Amino acid sequence: LCALASGIERARRRLPRRGADAAAPVVVVKLAEQGAWVVADSAIRRLTESVGRDRVYLLTFAESREIVALLDLVPGDRVLCVRTESWRIAVADLLAALRTLRRARVGTAVDLEFFARSSALLCYLSGARRRVGFHRNGREASYRGDLLTHRLVYNQRLHVGEAYLALVAALDADPERLPALGSIGGAPVAPPRRRTPPEEARTVEALLDPLGVGPDGRGLVLLNANAGDLLPLRRWPADRYVSLAERLLGELPDAVVAFTGAPSEAAEGRRLAAAVGSERCVSLAGWTTLGELVALYDRAEVLVTNDSGPAHYAALSEVDIVTLFGPESPTVFGSL
């Protein structure tokens, strides 16, 4: 499909065409990896400062809806979500999103994926005349066709947040001078701290009161033992988390340990807490919304987590974050 679309694009380039309108709306495409939206905060805010919040669209999987809403990067009606329950639903949502983008006459598409082919196609089909993303440029990477107008080299030594900023900065560069090596976007800044709404604070209070955790959260340690089914290699073995919890409780008489996780991880969270076998160890997996989870982070002293979304969500709070890395590099994917 990339090759077919590239052939069509090469033929179209021979025809007279108007130039891209830099003031037209922008679409940012990032389908998978919910935590990536936190890392992309600096880049997207730079975009919104340039063209306006109401002129930036975000295209993502529906699983990311909560974190995008929490970050409040763009108005809610500018977030185009693709449900993944079945391929029919996904295709229908993609077509609806593309129809919305074409009606809005988007002029620029920013592809935040590294090597995925589908996102390059979506940027092309959006109708945007300027399309920026990472291209193989002779390197070992997935073939994405000839669909980008602004091509960058993906630098594996840069933090992902810097790479995202480089994509946004490349929109102001001469396409003939790309691909650019190194960082042309600047260093990402930590995302803004989130103020906990009163109702979320009350929910967290109700969860922690039975455990004897005071308002200052001293002694509360949160353990996130899962990295999702997408990349199981990122998981630290569950029995290591049980051993860690046992050591914390044994060496720190005032410590309270709580396992966290999504509703789909509730059963596993209960199993791990039961394996620890202490009244000071519980599972809160599935008991909170994403907003309440960030509020819970604010009440804890430390979060120990696999390399996964919670390592990035926690950057919206005051908690200290210990991320356990497997095959990836903290220099590239570390929490902000």
- Relative strand content: 5-15%
Note the run of SSEs as H and E. Answer: HEHHEHEHEHEEHHEHEHEHEHEH
Based on CA atoms alone, the radius of gyration comes out at 22 Å
**Could you tell me how far the N terminus lies from the C terminus, measured between alpha carbons in angstroms?**
36 Å
Tally of DSSP helical segments: 13
Unreliable stretches (pLDDT < 50, length at least 5) are none
Which strand order do you get reading across the main beta sheet? 3-2-1-4-5-6
**Estimated structural class:** alpha/beta
Q: What share of the residues lie within helices?
A: 25-40%
Apparent shape? elongated
Q: Biggest sheet: strands, sense, closure?
A: 6 strands, parallel
Assembly state of the chains shown:
single chain
Can you tell me about this structure?
It is a single chain. 37% of the residues lie in helices and 15% in strands. The chain has helices at residues 2-12, 36-39, 41-51, 65-71, 87-103, 117-125, 160-170, 198-208, 238-251, 266-276, 290-299, 309-313, 330-333; strands spanning 26-29, 56-61, 79-82, 108-111, 130-134, 150-152, 220-224, 256-260, 281-283, 302-306, 320-324. It has a six-stranded parallel beta sheet with strand order 3-2-1-4-5-6, with helices on both faces. α10 (266-276) links the parallel β8 and β9 (281-283). The two termini are 36 Å apart. The model has no long low-confidence stretch (mean pLDDT 90).
Quick description:
This protein is an alpha/beta fold. It is built from 13 helices and eleven strands.
